[in-house]
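Following up on my earlier thread - several people asked me to post the actual chain instead of describing it. Fair enough. Here it is, all 61 residues.
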Amino acid sequence: MKPLGELVINTNIEIEGGMKRTMSTRVSDRDVVRISAEELEEETCNDSVTIESIKDEGYAP
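Reply from S.P.:
Thanks for posting it. Predicted structure:
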């Protein structure tokens, strides 16, 4: 697996009342877990999709 270094994900959200916030998530290559396609489970509910991944302890730090 190729090292990612560090990635920052900024997510802009709007809270009730029109207030806006930015959530920052930092991900490093030590946080990445390698999974295969068979380990993804997709569930659809109210027009939204939730994807769950199963952590494979063989690849996790």
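Strands lie at 6-15, 19-28, 40-45, 48-53. That should answer part of your original question.
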